[in-house]
Structure formats: C-alpha cells, structure tokens
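writing this on my phone so excuse typos. first protein, seq and then structure
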Amino acid sequence: IHYAPQWYRTPMIQSTALGIVFFWVFAAYTTIQFYAASTYGPVLAANSVGAVYLTFTISCLFAPSITNKLGCRPVMLIGILGYAALVMSSLVYFLYGDEIGG
C-alpha cells in the first residue's frame, strides 16, 4: 500500500472499493440462494441455507477475537472465501450433480 497513489488511500475510495466488493459477493450469494430450491430441491436447499446461517451465528462468537489477532483485511478475506466456497460448491453440484449422486 505504500506504493499506492495518495488519492487511492482516501477513505472515500477505500469505502467505495469495499462496497463494490461486498456488492458482488452478496449478489453471487443471493443468486445461489434464490436458485437453490430449483437446483438442489427444497430439502437440500433449506439444509444448505440453514448450514450457512448456523455458521454465521457460531462464527459471530469468535469473530471479534480473531479480528483483533489477525486484523480486518485477513478476516474479511476469510469471510469472503466462505461465500466463494458456497458458490463454487453450488456450481459443481449444478454442473455434475447427476454424476456425483444428485
């Protein structure tokens, strides 16, 4: 970051960049959540979404201490990787579900 131009380090630009990243992460997650019932069937879709929200609930207990230890950037990356794992597993199931027992 030391080599970044001064305008790039302003709070407005950083907030805008973070907002754009979160917009696309949640857009991908919401799309998967909406299409889960038609792709997985109602029971597996409900279980999948339920598991995600259960993970959110449990991780909220430990997130503050992990954030204090690792810092905000690594923890946000770890959180986004959780969404990416859900999107990728949904894509694999959609493409190869019949071959893997779906």
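second protein below, same order as before
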Amino acid sequence: QASTLVIGDVIVVKYGDKLPADIRIIESSNFKVDNSSLTGESEPQKRDVATTHDAPLEAENLAFFTTHALMGTCVG
C-alpha cells in the first residue's frame, strides 16, 4: 500500500499496476510505462536498469509515481 512506503523500500511492479511511488529500477523484464500524464508522450516508454540520461524524465532507470505499467515487470 502506497501510504506505508518509505525511502528504501523495494517494490515489484507488473503490467496494469499504477506506480505507488517514484522508483529506481533494479530489475526489469520488458517493462514499459505510460508517462503521458507527466510528459505528454503518447508512446509507451521503455524502462530498464541502465542509466541512460542525466535528466530524470529521460532516464530509463526511473519510473514515476502515478504512472501506469503497460507491459512487463520490474523491481525498484
């Protein structure tokens, strides 16, 4: 439950879930999210363990509170 999460908690996110917090991805399997509410981007965004960009909204190893998992699973 989102209200009980604290910094440092590790969560599993799967297809259909709404992210309960901002997370840094430490494991990923074909994971994509809908960032349209944050960025206006209409295409699903791939998320993985690799750090790909300095800007948080562009980094593939971050997923954000209230976005939805559209595909795959991750741990973060």
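Strands lie at 12-14, 23-24, 27-34, 45-47, 62-63, 68-75. thats all i got for now
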